[in-house]
Each structure stands twice: as C-alpha cells, then as structure tokens.
Design brief:
Length: 55
C-alpha cells in the first residue's frame, strides 16, 4: 500500500514530483477534493487539471 501525503506535502515537492509549480498542485488537488492522497492519485488529479480546456 502506497503512503498518503497531505496536499501541502505534495505541493511542497511539486517541481520534483509533478514538474510544475506548488500553486498548480495546490489548486488541482483542491478542485479534485483531495486532502490526502498517494503520489499516483495526485499525479492523475494534476494531469486532469492541466488538461482542462480554458474557457
């Protein structure tokens, strides 16, 4: 079972894990309703957020 991390912990390491800024990770996880997640779950949420169409 993969360890879970807080959104703040994941955002702190945004550049290393997600290759993006902490702000992007924070917003992506907030929109997804994620407070604690595995790295893989967070990666999916960030990828989904970054692929959304801007209106």
């Amino acid at each position: 079972m993969e360890p879970k991390y807080t959104a703040a912990e994941l955002a702190k390491h945004a550049r290393q894990i997600f290759n993006t800024t902490p702000e992007v990770v924070t917003v992506a996880l907030k929109i997804a309703g994620i407070e604690n997640s595995t790295v893989e779950e967070a990666k999916k949420a960030v990828k989904n957020f970054l692929s959304k169409e801007v209106k």
